[in-house]
Amino acid sequence: MTQYLIRRVFQLIPTFIGATLLAFIIIQLTPGDFTDRFALDPNADAEQLRRLRENFGLDDPILVQYFKWMWGIITAGYLGESFTYRAPVTEIIVPLIINSFTLVLISLVLTYLLAIPIGIYQAVNQYKLGDQVWSFFAVVGLAIPNFFFILLLIVGVLFLQGPLREVAQGNAWYKPILDFLSYDLRNGLLFPVGGMRTTEIYDSLSWWQQVGDRLWHLVLPTLVITTAGLSSLVRVVRGQVLDFLQSDFVRTARAKGLSERVVIYKHVLRNAISPVISGIGTVLPELVTGAGLVEFVYRWPGITPGFVIAIQQKDLYVVMGLLVLSAILLMIGNLISDVLLALVDPRIRYS
Predict the structure, then answer these.
(1) Complete DSSP assignment for 52-105
(2) Which residues are 146's β-sheet partners?
(3) pLDDT band with cut points at 50, 70 and 90 for residue 118
């Protein structure tokens, strides 16, 4: 195993260089660059634009720009400077990563904690009422697109605001629900996503109020992401457990007098869990790439909105910084999944 890990680590180096070089070239091949929007301004100073391009090295060949950027990563861990914000890329992307990491991590933990026991329950109770009910919800979850489910939740929130306010009539017991239902879907979350007012309000809160505010506004986006992953993962776990329930070693374990709980969780689940563990390779990049459409609709200040804005503004090094983190986490995730598979499944050995 040690030799295998060392060999895999060395294999990650050319993979990382190839992935980042390809991404860098593709981004550079798009028409125009960051200074083009200033060049279109009739009042722009041509000399100032020339100095700007010289400072950022935009006139250098693509490979020269790439190797300068890569040398900064190797020597100092420096991802470059943002063209738009005139600040190190790390300062720009770290807050976005933290927001996306929080959202996706909570959703993934809930998905795995719910999918495994539900899938086992369905397999053990195949074709019974409980299995049919969960199968129905799983099919509905797979059939409904995320963007439509998001809209349904928004409509539900807006619809419930009026009736609940009439029922509450100032009763303090309903206040948390009303606060949640009245969160502004147009202007986004209370913590800063742009605008002086929201920033001032958020900064005036104590640290535990800030944490509570973030968690409170995580409810709807977390619900969307969790249900989307739960529907498919439950089907995988159910199918795997059903396959191994018919195996010879399960019949042998039962013939030895082992309890059904030991048979399921010690023998069946250990073999059936392999596809779930192999999927861990994609989990780490998801923690950085964010939740896509969900972040846009719910105004969550995460990676996806920041990535799109950086592309629109042709902010090269911000885009590359996000791609670098995604590539690294994807490679690390695949390595972790391979190691976990070897630990869980005794049939897998790396020599």
Answers:
(1) HHHHHTTTS-HHHHHHHHHHHHHHH----B-TTT-SBHHHHHHHHHHHHHHHHH
(2) none
(3) very high
Q: Quick one: which of 347, 349, 325 has its CA closest to 339?
A: 349
Give the Cα separation of 335 and 342 in Å (integer). Answer: 11
Who wins on pLDDT, 75 or 298? 75
Average pLDDT taken over every residue of the chain = 76
Give yes or no for a contact between 97 and 325, defined as CB atoms under 8 angstroms apart: yes
Structure token pair of residue 316: 């090269």
Q: How far is CA 125 from CA 130, 133, 135, in A?
A: 7, 11, 12
- Cα separation, 205 vs 199, in Å, equals 10
Domains of the chain plus CATH, in order, are 2-76 (no CATH), 90-344 (1.10.3720.10)
Of 343, 250, 344, 326, the closest CA to residue 288 belongs to 326
What pLDDT is stored for residue 170 in this prediction? 53
Looking at per-residue pLDDT, the higher value among 121 and 144 belongs to 121
Say if CB 104 and CB 326 are below 8 A apart.
no
Length of the chain: 351
Environment class of residue 260 by beta-carbon count within 10 Å: exposed (0-12), middle (13-18) or buried (19+)? exposed
